[in-house]
Amino acid sequence: MSELIVRVADLQVGHAGDELLTIGLGSCVAIVLYDATARVGGLAHVLLPSPALTRTSDRAGKVPQTAVPELLVRMAALGARTTHITARLAGGASMFASLTAPGTIQMGERNVVASRQVLAQHGLRITAEAVGGDFGRTVRLWTTDGRVEISSVSHGTSDL
Q1: Where are the strands (E) in the chain, listed by range?
Q2: Catalytic pick among 6, 9, 20, 28
Q3: I need a surface site. Which of 1, 88, 132, 150 has the fewest CB within 10 A?
């Protein structure tokens, strides 16, 4: 079993026995994909909702528009089939809502909306979400059984 760390604006895939982990999700969104038949999973730590908000496109995990297709390609190389893949989302918090004008759309909310749109464009069904709020999260995916654990200092640990 190996632990694969997913840093900000990065992504990883793994197969049975791997654990994918990302720490420090605030307004960022974790896109978790899993094929239960192949026991192949993928995790992206998405930073921004759109390529238009970044000067460089050097990291596929930075935005959902490049993260999802890259995860699908890498997962297919390990035997996953798109028709078997389901998605889960976590993160997208409004970490600094009290510092912005009322009615302002927060970056976390924008990241969640963009991630949902891209997943829908690829025909991927979202089976669970742990999004929003005003607190950070850590996400773990165990590829052996597809279990996803969300933990935060203020809200404890739960399965997604």
Answers
A1: 2-5, 11-15, 18-25, 29-35, 40-46, 85-91, 125-131, 137-142, 148-152, 156-159
A2: 28
A3: 1
